[in-house]
Amino acid sequence: MEKWSLMTITVLLALTVRWAVSLGSYSGAGKPPMYGDYEAQRHWQEITYNLPIRQWYFNTSDNNLLYWGLDYPPLTAYHSFVCAYIAKLINPDWVALHTSRGYESQPHKLFMRTTVFVADLLVYIPAVILYCFSLKETSAKKKASTCALCILLYPGLILIDHGHFQYPLSLGLALWAVLCLSHDWDLLGSMAFCFALNYKQMELYHSLPFFCYLLGKCFKKGLKGKGLVLLAKLAGTVLVSFAACWLPFGTDVEQIMQVLRRLFPIDRGLFEACMFSSPTHCPDKVANIWCSLSVLIKIKNVISPRTQLKLSFAVTFLSLLPACIKLTVQPSLRGFKFALVSCALSFFLFSFQVHEKSILLVSVPVCLVINEIPFMATWFLLVSTFSLLPLLLKDGLLLPYAATTPAFLALCLASFSILEKTSAEDLQLKAFSLSLKGYVAWAKAFPRIVRSLFLLSLSLMGALSVLSAAVPPPQRLPDLFPLAVAVVSCLHFLLFLLYFNVVILWDSKNRGQKKIS
């Protein structure tokens, strides 16, 4: 009973923080003609409610795709329709065709914010709570509420979902999939992940670890016996799940092709994460390798879009290959969670058309291992929130950012004593360290070096946050601070990618994992 009481307090605190953030501004508020993501979600409700399904993804006189046309998979569209149906009952003006464009009012803001709260309460928060209770380690079980509080108060997700405006459904469904796999409910896990992927195509960031882990389980069971049966069941589950999501579009091949063209608009180029951005939005200032390199080399001016696509695919594939091979050969739940982090980070750093919000696809898996590597997880989550700073400043979310980020750091310091867990063993680098010559000589200095780098990183991020918020940039360099934030964050992410791959590749014990049979 006591642990459930603590968890109730945890959830109430998490909801209070979300409510406080939601009182502020949102993406594109009062900024015509395109407004922002808030208007995009409202517009999708308008389109899905008033137009037949066959017109949802097509450019027509009633559906101008240049004005926030649907570019997410069918489950997003169905969710928009459900929200629109409720909105219509409350106030038909909110979803009136054409005339509701750019609609802004306090009652409507309350309705939209409430839809995000409901999604959080029904999908994301329960998955986090059950995941924390399912942790195998005894010490982690005692800290289930603490672990859940740290995950639920991760500022990046709160600021984007309840500030900028976004639904946590795809990430929540992915969490349910991880939870199911942790209990060996492989078919339910596969179905949950299929739904996540059919809500947002960016869940492809997580697809390879799911595929490799389940394929590795099939290999371990033997492809001439139980493994083949499991593989057939998994294939059937995926096919049925996709068929259910795409059924309304399955009667016409052109419908399917048009939806796919909307989901993967490769002609936009390497950097065009959102061709419908508002005039104030700067999509090129993303903390990945391509945008950071563009400071020195204008890649989009010297390489054709098709070549950009091939280059980004090759680099992304090579960067995630080691972790995927290891997971397939030695499938373990622990390895699976770390592979989710590594592969998602590879996609963020090297793939095609990355949006700054995509870092959340890395951050949520990092939250899943915060009990195992609290120091590095906390550090990463702080950097990921910092990388969103230019977007948050445009949305008027400086105050929530300045309040939630230090509070999160303080919470992690108090909950996990992270500054005391910086040894090679604490960082899960003992096996790697022992393989290096002269390990004993620098082992004692290692924790001090790591802490110094952490404090230097915090100081740099703090200074750039203050400069970005308070100091006007030079007239000749108007994007100086957003670029600095992107480059500094990218350098951090590259080092984190190296770190997570080292942990994965040098982990031969798979501690705490039950044998797959």
Automatic annotation (TrEMBL):
It catalyses: an alpha-D-Man-(1->2)-alpha-D-Man-(1->2)-alpha-D-Man-(1->3)-[alpha-D-Man-(1->2)-alpha-D-Man-(1->3)-[alpha-D-Man-(1->2)-alpha-D-Man-(1->6)]-alpha-D-Man-(1->6)]-beta-D-Man-(1->4)-beta-D-GlcNAc-(1->4)-alpha-D-GlcNAc-diphospho-di-trans,poly-cis-dolichol + a di-trans,poly-cis-dolichyl beta-D-glucosyl phosphate = an alpha-D-Glc-(1->3)-alpha-D-Man-(1->2)-alpha-D-Man-(1->2)-alpha-D-Man-(1->3)-[alpha-D-Man-(1->2)-alpha-D-Man-(1->3)-[alpha-D-Man-(1->2)-alpha-D-Man-(1->6)]-alpha-D-Man-(1->6)]-beta-D-Man-(1->4)-beta-D-GlcNAc-(1->4)-alpha-D-GlcNAc-diphospho-di-trans,poly-cis-dolichol + a di-trans,poly-cis-dolichyl phosphate + H(+). One of its GO terms (molecular function) is dolichyl pyrophosphate Man9GlcNAc2 alpha-1,3-glucosyltransferase activity. It comes from the Eukaryota. Keywords: Endoplasmic reticulum, Glycosyltransferase, Membrane, Signal, Transferase, Transmembrane, Transmembrane helix. Residues 1-22 form the signal peptide. The keyword Cell membrane does not apply. Dolichyl pyrophosphate Man9GlcNAc2 alpha-1,3-glucosyltransferase that operates in the biosynthetic pathway of dolichol-linked oligosaccharides, the glycan precursors employed in protein asparagine (N)-glycosylation. The assembly of dolichol-linked oligosaccharides begins on the cytosolic side of the endoplasmic reticulum membrane and finishes in its lumen. The sequential addition of sugars to dolichol pyrophosphate produces dolichol-linked oligosaccharides containing fourteen sugars, including two GlcNAcs, nine mannoses and three glucoses. Belongs to the ALG6/ALG8 glucosyltransferase family. This is Alpha-1,3-glucosyltransferase. The lineage of its organism: Eukaryota, Metazoa, Chordata, Craniata, Vertebrata. The gene is Alg6.
